[in-house]
Design brief:
This protein is of the alpha+beta class. It has one domain: Roll (Nuclear Transport Factor 2, Chain: A), CATH 3.10.450. It is about 30% helix and about 40% strand. It is built from 4 helices and 5 strands; from the N terminus they run H-H-E-H-E-E-E-E-H. A 5-stranded mixed sheet has the order 1-5-4-3-2. The longest helix has 14 residues.
């Protein structure tokens, strides 16, 4: 396992066990977040959203992982209370042992319908 994948999986393990403070320890202070809904200009704003949405998860199943020197990808299914199962692909860039960029792709229909999108 690469160092990059170790960092990403430590972050994943932390938030999927609802230890959001520990998840934050793996994020660079200059984190750039690219997600299909909403905007998170700071680590604090992203962690607030992660905590709120992550607290609603009932089950998460990691389906695949991939990494090279500075990038990693995770594919997982997340069963969310009131939304059902959402398949998510996340692409991470890791620099100096911290996640500096997080790109997430998922179907936004259920999330938009539930009102989780800021307008």
């Amino acid at each position: 396992m690469t160092k990059t994948l170790e960092v990403v999986k430590a972050y994943y393990r932390a938030w999927t066990t609802k230890n959001f403070a520990a998840a934050g320890e793996h994020l660079a202070p200059t984190l750039v977040v690219e997600v299909p809904v909403n905007d998170y200009p700071t680590v604090a704003s992203f962690l607030q959203a992660l905590s709120g949405f992550g607290s609603m998860t009932k089950r998460i199943e990691l389906l695949a992982e991939f990494a090279n020197d500075a990038e990693a990808m995770l594919l997982y299914d997340m069963d969310v209370e009131g939304l059902g199962t959402i398949r998510i692909a996340e692409h991470f860039t890791v620099e100096d042992g911290k996640i500096s960029r997080l790109r997430q792709i998922h179907d936004t229909h259920a999330i938009r319908a539930a009102g989780f999108v800021k307008t």
